[in-house]
Specification:
single chain, 420 residues, alpha+beta, OB fold (Dihydrolipoamide Acetyltransferase, E2P), Dihydrolipoamide Transferase, Chloramphenicol Acetyltransferase, 3 domains, 7-stranded mixed sheet, 6-stranded mixed sheet, 10 helices, 19 strands
Length: 420
């Protein structure tokens, strides 16, 4: 029996995924729970297993295609039917999901059975919103998704495309105008050539990063405050802990601890704005920005206040490793109340970080540098750590942002305040 295996709902509100690599070819046999395809979602790479044993009759789409959840991922002929029979069946296929549940589908409409009524536009709400933002008429877009559904890539291409005929007319008119005023016509470029250089298709993660920071920048009125902390005692405390516990203690863990303590005193910085209401979380989860080969990712450490520094260091290291291999679990992909970005790990200093959508603040931490500091009329040299705090001005006033940042500085300069 031929069954259609649909792209399953993989949680976290994700609506689509890109096919990165097929792990089995068309015509290849598969076992139950065998991974058949590698996909990329907004933040993770994952392999999808088949719920049935049999033969892969057809791939739902080629590599590089973006599919919506519920689109046909693969057609699988199960062990009770031959491939030839599967391909020649006229009855409706069966829809499969990861839960092994299946339902009969009505026969697909053929060209001969189609009516003269206008064909409804098949597009998800997120695609319709994008089309509205880009001023694209969906009726004029040809969908490349399953069953002709219009995808976000279809909308983007429609927004970028220019009619070849119009472009030719524009080029001709421009050339004629140049000739009429005695200017030399520019050389005509041969078809198929380009002077743009290498063209690289953005990954799913890169496109998602762009969409989310754009949404944050459009919707959140940003304010960024700057300060620096003398981390002499922070460095000394870290080395003492490493010696006493004979275990690594990361700077990320120290910073997260200092921030969590400050958030306990300034609850509004961890609140979430929803229309005219603020929601204060029962437990404060912290997002930690991780630099990966595929782009910036934020891993979410659940309730870091309950961990000691050695355990917290191990947890951040574990999540960072999973992020770089694109194997993060769903619970580590969202839900943070505040974000920490340690740009000092790559040599960064001050900056203007963008507040992640759905949160109120983010702290960017730069590389500590030995800097001349005036104290009591004397000039001293101390390791000064640059701090840049961006926050949502709809929730936090300037004075509130400065008070929170002052508390973070105080914690970093005197670690016993968050170690006690």
């Amino acid at each position: 029996m031929a069954k259609e295996f649909l792209l399953p709902d993989i949680g976290e509100g994700l609506t689509e995924a890109e096919i990165i690599r097929w792990l089995v070819g068309e015509g290849d046999p598969v076992d139950v729970d065998q991974s058949i395809v590698e996909i990329e979602t907004d933040k993770a790479l994952m392999e999808i297993p088949t719920p049935w044993a049999g033969v892969v009759v057809a791939h739902g789409a080629p590599e590089g295609t973006v599919l919506e959840v519920g689109a046909v991922l693969a057609t699988i002929q199960t062990v009770d039917e031959s491939p030839a029979d599967a391909l020649s069946r006229e009855s409706a296929p069966i829809v499969g999901t990861l839960s092994d549940q299946a339902v009969d589908l009505p026969p697909r409409q053929t060209a001969s059975s189609a009516t003269s009524e206008p064909t409804p536009i098949e597009a998800l709400p997120v695609v319709r919103r994008l089309a509205k933002d880009l001023d694209v008429d969906l009726a004029s877009v040809t969908g490349t998704g399953a069953e002709g559904r219009i995808t976000r890539d279809d909308v983007r291409r429609a927004a970028e495309d220019t009619s070849p005929a119009d472009a030719a007319e524009d080029d001709t008119a421009g050339a004629e105008q140049s000739a009429s005023v005695g200017e030399e016509r520019p050389p005509q470029r041969e078809a198929g050539t380009s002077d743009r250089g290498e063209v690289v298709h953005l990954s799913k993660l890169r496109r998602t990063i762009g969409e989310r920071v754009s949404a944050s920048w459009r919707e959140i009125p940003h304010v960024t405050a700057f300060d620096s902390a003398d981390v002499t005692r922070l460095f000394a405390s870290r080395e003492a802990l490493k010696r006493r516990r004979n275990a690594p203690v990361s700077m990320d863990a120290m910073i997260v601890k200092a921030v969590v303590t400050a958030l306990g005193q300034h609850r509004e910085m961890a609140a979430r704005l929803d229309g005219e209401t603020l929601t204060y979380p029962e437990r404060i989860h912290i997002g930690v920005a991780v630099d990966t080969d595929d782009g910036l990712m934020v891993v979410v450490v659940e309730d870091p206040g309950k961990h000691d520094l050695v355990a917290l260091s191990a947890e951040i290291t574990r999540l960072s490793r999973l992020a770089r291999s694109r194997q993060l679990p769903a619970q580590a992909l969202g839900g943070q109340a505040f974000t920490v970005s340690n740009v000092g790990a790559v040599g960064g200093g001050y900056g203007t970080p963008i507040v992640p959508h759905g949160t109120t603040g983010i702290l960017s931490v730069g590389k500590a540098e030995h800097t001349p500091v005036a104290r009591g009329g004397r000039l001293e040299i101390a390791p000064m750590m640059p701090l840049s705090l961006s926050y949502d001005h709809r929730v936090i006033d300037g004075s509130g942002g400065r008070r929170f940042l002052a508390t973070v500085v105080e914690n970093l300069e005197e670690p016993t305040l968050f170690l006690a």
